[in-house]
Amino acid sequence: MSVPLGSFFQQLQQRTGPGFGVGLEEFARLLKRLGNPQNQYCVIHVAGTNGKGSVCHLCAEVLQAAGWRTGLFISPHLFSVQERISVDGQLISRSSFVRLCQKVLAEQKKPLNFFEIITAAAFLYFAEQKVQYVVLETGLGGRKDPTNVCRPAVCIITSIGLDHCALLGSTLKQIAYEKAGIIKAGVPVFCPPLAAPAWAEIRRCASAAQAPLQQVKTGQPFLLQKIDWARGRLILRKGKTLWPLHILGEKQTQNACLVYQACRFLGVGEKALKKAFARVGVPCRFEVVQIGKKRIIFDGAHNPQAAETFARFFKRSPWVENAALVCGFMKDKDYPQMIKKLAPHFAALYLTRPRAERAAAPQQIEAVLFGAGRRKNPRGGGLKQADLTAANSAQRKKSFLLAAASAKSKNPAAGEVLCFASAVRALAAACAAYDTVAVTGSFYLAGYLRARKGLTENSDCD
Q1: Contact at 8 Å (CB) between 363 and 383?
Q2: For residue 10, what is the domain's CATH number?
Q3: Cα dihedral 115/79/65/242 (nearest 10)
């Protein structure tokens, strides 16, 4: 009797926290009992604070364009857990996902956690599918990550920033040490320019492993020629040749340079690279979606570094004068810094929460904007947990962070800060008042709302 994916996924999600997780040594023994599937294909291993998803999608697209059968393992998923495991752009089937996870669970001698189970299932699936390459994204850090049992052909470290500090360390040097844990003896490493403490640590780890380290700067080989806002792409320049890249974002030129250098090392020709750049699509990375007369920008910025990058790029867009922000954050993230970086660029804020236990309440975000001691609105009473609808009295405030943006706007709603328990209703309210709405703060929020707008066929959102 087959097990429905929805209920099975809920069971897997419970396998987190104390009591679950076996560590790399036991995980390696588990894979040995399963036949060491991770050794049956070439691997590109990708770590980094931000940019991993974009680099992984682009690498996989390039390898497919070159004619290689290619597996892709990413996290977190945006819409469906199946999205984490795919071959040549096709998601693993529901039945295969359940079957392989059950096969992994049957071999466990100690309680595996959620990520260990799906990582092992992915390794098995890629072996079953007889892929030639796998693009493998780390889940957290690198050194202790379950993906780190592989022997890669190439390693890529996309960026180093302050995130997951409770687990990875509170300094760039400490976090770089954890990310550099994917470096293996003799395996080439490609890395962009980094802050001095992070770069010094990456160099030290690569030297200790005798791994060739190449710092890839913007201009090696691409420079940004222009932003094609209408078609959602960047036009890169390599010498006298233009290369369309079908991803928007401030860091995507740098990401393209990393992918180019790593894939050229693997022997991929420029024809395949150029073809892949033009056709790649990465959801929720400054993804501009037109729905009727409304323009929604979905982005997964989930730490201060990513929020600042998003804000700078949005500031360059033609829509910056009169746009609203729908945002929600995880409470274990530095959301006070994130909202301060985002708020000045929008005429109004619609505060909500991702659908996750770790989500910060919108009132917690509001407290950052106004201070915990000044939370009463002009019409009396504090902001309520319930959604704000026409039936409610309007709960509105103006923030000093919104002053510059709202002053430019002729929209009567400009300057508002509203709290919503329902993310769907927050987006609906923002779209009712503004033609351009950005959704960011968490991949969980952006992915959920993108799915609810009918843009995704497979979704676990409901």
Answers
A1: yes
A2: 3.40.1190.10
A3: -120
| Same domain, residue pair 307 and 363 | yes
Residue 197 lies in a domain: yes
For 243-268, the pLDDT digits (tens) are: 999 999 999 999 999 999 999 999 99
The answer on 301 and 270 residing in a single domain is: no
> How many other CB atoms are there within 10 angstroms of residue 259's CB atom?
33
CA 320 – CA 97 distance, rounded (Å): 42
- pLDDT grade for 393, boundaries at 50, 70 and 90: very low
Give CA 271 to chain center in angstroms: 28
How many domains are contained in the chain?
2
The gap from C-alpha 209 to its chain's centroid, in whole angstroms, comes to: 29
Locate 371 and state its tokens. 């201070």
Strand partners, 440: 327
- Containing domain of residue 410, as a range? 287-452
pTM of the full predicted structure? 0.90
Last residue of a domain, one of 234, 249, 279: 279
Distance of alpha carbon 118 from alpha carbon 116, whole angstroms: 6
**Residue 439 clears pLDDT 60, i.e. is over it:** yes
**Segment 11-47, tens digit of pLDDT:** 888 888 766 789 999 999 999 999 999 999 999 999 9
> Using an 8 Å Cβ cutoff, are 88 and 68 in contact?
no
